[in-house]
Specification:
alpha+beta; Aminopeptidase; five-stranded mixed beta sheet; 4 helices
Length: about 160
């Protein structure tokens, strides 16, 4: 069994592919927030995917299996810190379906995202936002060398 990681470009994009990524995003929402995405949320995510693919400041990688089925995806973007007047990388989403977890698929996606951030944009800071109750994600990110920096409080 081999896993393939692919950078999505404008030439790769079609409605079926975008819908598959949105469905994976929905699976992630069900796992982490116990709720399904509404139609308007799905449309917003699809628009965000299209923007990332068309922008030089966003990127999407997909992971596929031998049958060319999408088994995961990762997204990153470049943000501007206005206080320090610098760019930084942000990993926005990483998701791998449960049957392919613990097989280094997420790690490979993250490696490609980090390489894109470093090579294409020469940034030295990387941010990832993780729900404090998502122990699986917290363990993953700490396991690859990221450290907790601060807690964000919200009224949700």
């Amino acid at each position: 069994m081999s896993i393939h990681i692919q950078l999505l470009t404008k030439d790769d994009v079609n409605p079926k592919l975008l819908n598959e990524i949105v469905e994976l995003w929905n699976e992630n929402a069900k796992e982490t927030a116990d709720s399904e995405l509404e139609k308007s949320e799905r449309q917003g995510i699809q628009e965000q995917l299209e923007q990332y693919i068309q922008s030089k400041y966003g990127v999407i990688y997909i992971a596929t299996n031998d049958n060319n089925q999408i088994i995961g995806f990762g997204m990153a973007s470049i943000k501007k810190d206005l206080i320090y007047d610098m760019n930084y990388g942000q990993i926005d989403e990483v998701y791998v379906i449960p049957t392919y977890r613990r097989q280094k698929v997420a790690k490979r996606l993250v490696d490609d995202l980090v390489n894109w951030i470093d090579e294409e944009h020469d940034t030295s800071v990387l941010n990832v936002y993780v729900d404090l109750e998502n122990d699986l994600a917290l363990n993953f990110w700490e396991g690859i060398g990221l450290e907790k920096e601060f807690f964000m409080l919200s009224s949700n």
